[in-house]
Amino acid sequence: MAIDITKELLALQDLEYKEYTGKVNPAVPQDTVIGIRIPKLRQLAKKLLKESKPEQKAYLKTLRISAKKTVGKK
Question: Is the distance from CB of 14 to CB of 36 less than 8 angstroms?
């Protein structure tokens, strides 16, 4: 079963958090911010990983490894 990620993300939207995020990050266009709290985003990521196909899991693993290598670099 395919997951509509946009629909899933919008279902987790917190409008108050979106407003707060817009104030904290004024350089980011407000219309591009969804406003999802990190714990809920992590839950969704776990769900997507469980429901993904093997090739999608391999791609996500590659992204995770790449992100770990770039954290802290300037």
Answer: yes
- Distance (Å, whole) CA 19 – CA 30: 8
How far is CA 38 from each of CA 23, 33, 42, 43, 55, rounded to the nearest angstrom?
17, 13, 6, 9, 26
Alpha carbon distance 25, 45 (integer Å): 24
pLDDT, tens digit, for every residue of 30-69?
999 999 999 998 898 888 878 878 887 787 778 777 767 7
**Which of 24, 46, 45 is closest to 35 using CA atoms?**
24
The amino acid occupying position 4 is D
Q: Degrees (nearest 5) of the Cα angle 7, 13, 18?
A: 135
pTM check: above 0.90: no
